[in-house]
Write a structure and sequence with these properties.
Mean pLDDT: 90
CATH topology: Cyclophilin
Shape: globular
Helix content: 10-25%
Radius of gyration: 19 Å
Strand content: 25-35%
Number of domains: 1
Largest sheet: 9 strands, antiparallel
Low-confidence stretches: 5-27
Number of helices: 4
Structural class: alpha+beta
C-alpha cells in the first residue's frame, strides 16, 4: 500500500495552530512574498477551498506530473481514502490497493544539492532530525553543509507523494500532514507542496478507523476531492492574490528571535532557547 509509513502521531490541537497563525499574522510590519500563479493550485473539498503552494525547486518532476494529472482531471471525484487522526490524510485513486494505474512512477526527490542562491533563514542548529533547520521561501527545511544537501521537512500542512517500500514508487496518490510533525519521514518521501490557506477545511476530512490504520472501506463515508484547478489555468481576473510571510525578511527574523527567547512575563519557567521549525507558523494573506 502506498503510504508515508505505518505510523501514528498524537493529534495536533487545531486551536493552537490557528492561534499561533493569527499571532504571526497580527505582527506589525510583516513583509509579504507573492506566490506566482504557476505555483498555486486550488483544491475544492466539501467544506471549502484549500490553496496549495507547489515547490518545483525541490521536486520538479513530481510537480510536473501532479500538474499534468490536475489538468487531466485525474483527482476530481476521488477521495481521501486513508485518514489517520493526528497523522496524515491520503487521497487519490488507491491504485496500489488494486491494479496499478498506467501513470509513470516518479524518481525520489527527497533532497537536493545546497545552493548559496537559496534564501535560507536559519532557525535551529543543531536540530533533532537535521544538522540545521530553517526556512526557504516559506517552506520549513533542513540542511547538512557537510554533504551540501538541503531538504523540506514534514511540518503540518505539507503535501508529499505516497509510495511503497521502493524509493521510486510514488506516482499519483498524495498525503497532507494533519497532525504533529512526523519529522522521521524527512528525506524518505517527496514533499512537493504545502497548504497555505484552508487547513481548517483539510482538518475536517473524515477519519478512518484507527484499528484499520485509517483505511476507509469502500462504501463508507469519505471526503471527496471535488476538484483541483491550477491558478495559471484560471482567468487572470479570477485568480486570488496569495501572499505569504517573507521568511527571508528582517521582520521574520525578529519573530524567530522572540519565539526562541520567550521573553513575555507569561513564562515563569523559561524554556530552553531552542526552536522547532515546525512550530513557527507562516502567515498567509489572500486578496484579489
Amino acid at each position: 500500500m502506498n503510504q508515508p509509513w505505518n505510523a501514528f502521531c498524537p493529534t495536533l490541537t487545531l486551536a493552537l495552530v490557528l492561534t499561533a497563525a493569527a499571532a504571526v499574522a497580527a505582527q506589525d510590519g510583516t513583509e509579504w512574498r507573492s506566490i506566482e500563479a504557476a505555483s498555486i493550485a486550488y483544491m475544492q473539498l466539501p467544506g471549502g477551498e484549500a490553496i496549495i503552494e507547489l515547490n518545483a525547486e525541490f521536486a520538479p518532476t513530481t510537480v510536473a506530473q501532479f500538474k499534468r494529472l490536475v489538468r487531466d482531471g485525474f483527482y476530481d471525484g476521488l477521495a481521501f481514502y486513508r485518514v489517520v487522526d493526528g497523522f496524515v490524510a491520503q487521497g487519490g485513486d488507491g491504485s496500489d490497493m488494486a491494479d496499478p494505474n498506467s501513470e509513470p512512477m516518479l524518481p525520489a526527490e527527497f533532497e537536493r544539492p545546497w545552493s548559496g542562491e537559496l534564501p535560507f533563514t536559519s532557525v535551529q542548529k543543531p536540530d533533532m532530525f537535521a544538522p540545521e533547520t530553517g526556512f526557504i521561501d516559506g517552506f520549513a527545511a533542513g540542511r547538512d553543509m557537510q554533504s551540501r544537501k538541503v531538504w523540506l521537512t514534514h511540518c503540518p500542512g505539507v503535501i508529499a507523494m505516497a509510495r511503497n517500500d521502493g524509493s521510486d514508487t510514488g506516482s499519483t496518490d498524495f498525503y497532507i500532514v494533519i497532525g504533529q510533525a512526523p519529522r522521521y519521514l524527512d528525506r524518505n518521501l517527496t514533499i512537493f507542496g504545502r497548504v497555505v490557506s484552508g487547513m481548517d477545511v483539510v482538518y475536517r476530512v473524515i477519519r478512518g478507523p484507527s484499528d484499520a490504520n485509517g483505511m476507509i472501506a469502500e462504501g463508507e463515508p469519505s471526503t471527496i476531492i471535488e476538484k483541483i484547478v491550477l491558478a495559471e489555468d484560471v482567468p487572470v481576473a479570477a485568480r486570488k492574490d496569495v501572499r505569504v510571510t517573507d521568511t527571508s525578511g528582517a521582520e521574520f527574523g525578529k519573530v524567530l528571535q522572540s519565539r526562541k527567547k520567550r521573553g513575555p512575563p507569561f513564562f515563569h519557567h523559561k524554556p530552553p532557547e531552542v526552536l522547532d521549525v515546525c512550530q513557527i507558523p507562516v502567515a498567509t494573506r489572500i486578496g484579489r
